[in-house]
Structure formats: structure tokens, C-alpha cells
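INFO batch 0412 | record 1 of 1 | parsing
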Amino acid sequence: MKKAVKKYKYKIIFVIAAALMIAVIFALFSVDGAANQKNIDFINSFGWSVKDAPSDISHITVPENLSDIYLIHSQISGIEGSSITDFRGKSITRYSYTVLNHQNSESGKIRADVFVYKTDIIAADIADISPGGRISPISDLSEMTPD
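INFO prediction complete | emitting C-alpha cells
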């Protein structure tokens, strides 16, 4: 009888621990409604349409010594008055949204990336994440489908 109670107790502890882990993961990788709407409004201001929720949220620490890829990306995705290079050593968040009105949207591989430091949007781009894909400035509307 004691063994059965002991097993039951361990199962309850395991379930509680699992629930706490899920809650922590959800809190770390969720986006609040106001930040999400701010990002979507920013993307929409260029004419792009995206899904209502990010497909990916990544927390990135910009390295002190930037590699060529960061320098190139900074030139493409910088917002007027801001560049990723200005945030060396800082943690930023990349919100990725699935783009709906790009010529290649059917592939599911076109995303709008918005880079945020604290609450400020510091960079954004349109990225084709398929093999051989490219990154374009969010202001480049050349591959947007007509309305």
C-alpha cells in the first residue's frame, strides 16, 4: 500500500514540474498583444500582409565583433537612424511573421523579420528562408503581389 501511495506522489510531483516548465517556456517565448500589434502595424505600413502571430521568436545577443554576415544584414535591414551594429553586446529579439502577399508566399518560406531592442523596432527585412533564398529590405516591394 505504501508503494502505491509513493508512486502516486511521484506522479503528482512530475506533473506539477512539467506544468511549471511549460509555463516558463511559454512566458519566455510568447509575445504580448501590444508588441505583436506594433510589429504587424510596422510591417503593414510598407504594404506587406502577414499572419496575425509570429511563426518564430528568437532572442539574439549581437556579438561585439561582428562577422561579415551581420555587417551585410545590417546594411539591408537597418531602419532609418538605426542599425544592428549599434547594438553590439546587447540582447535583441527577432519576431518572424509569415508573409502572405509575396510572389513566393505559396512556398511558406517568405517571412518578415522585425528586430526589437527593448520596445523599439531597430531593423526589419523580408527573408526567403528556402535554400539559396535572399534577404531584402522591408521597403523593397518589387516582389509584392498586386492587390
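INFO post-check: Strands lie at 56-61, 91-98, 110-117, 120-128, 135-137.
INFO record closed
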